[in-house]
Amino acid sequence: MTTDSADTDTATVQARIGAALLASGRPLRATELAGLLNLTTPQTQDALHRYAATLEAADLGFVVEEVAGGYRLVVPPALAHSLAPLLAPAPLPQLSGAALEVLAVIAYRQPITRAEIEAMRGGSASTVVTLQERELIKVVGRADAVGSPLLYGTTQRFLVEFGLRDLGDLPPLGDQNAEFTGLLRG
């Protein structure tokens, strides 16, 4: 793809990347940005990494975060606490231990039925409703079993709220640090 010199100028490309990430209000995929910038996806990914490095080096109060299969501008974690009253959307209310446990089961075993969740936990999975209301999980289908029970999986919001690029970023199950309580933002 050919572009004129104004489109490929580093400062112009970086300004357009920053403006797009700020204006979008959601993570943008590299392919979406490539279309906006009239660049190839590899060129866009390279420009994104250079932009992220520029922001980090200049310590301007923003960082580029790769999350939920895309990129977004965020306040660095070191500044987020002091700016919490200004940040939107409002952080999710803290989840109970039971809700975090159900969410972890779903995240690692999806797609999964409520009965399977309850069998793994050895107790109720009533927090499924709360997790759905908070848009952290959703119905992803029906199981091929008697009664065709609903199957649950995580959502894009789950990835965003936990700062994960994709489910492959989940900590390994045997990892001592695999607790969700430290991952949830807010």
Question: What keyword list fits this structure?
Answer:
single chain; 186 residues; Arc Repressor Mutant, subunit A; 2 domains; elongated; disordered C terminus
Major sheet summary line: 3 strands, antiparallel
Question: Main sheet: which strands, in order across?
Answer: 3-5-4
Determine the N-to-C terminus distance: 42 Å
Q: Count of helical segments?
A: 9
CATH class identity of the largest domain? Mainly Alpha
Beta fraction: 5-15%
Quickly give the structural class: alpha+beta
* CATH structural architecture of the largest domain: Orthogonal Bundle
Task: Compile the SSE list and pairings.
Blueprint: H1 5-8, H2 10-24, H3 30-37, H4 41-58, E1 63-67, E2 70-74, H5 77-83, H6 97-109, E3 112-113, H7 114-121, H8 128-133, E4 137-142, E5 150-154, H9 156-161
Antiparallel strand pairs: 1-2, 3-5, 4-5
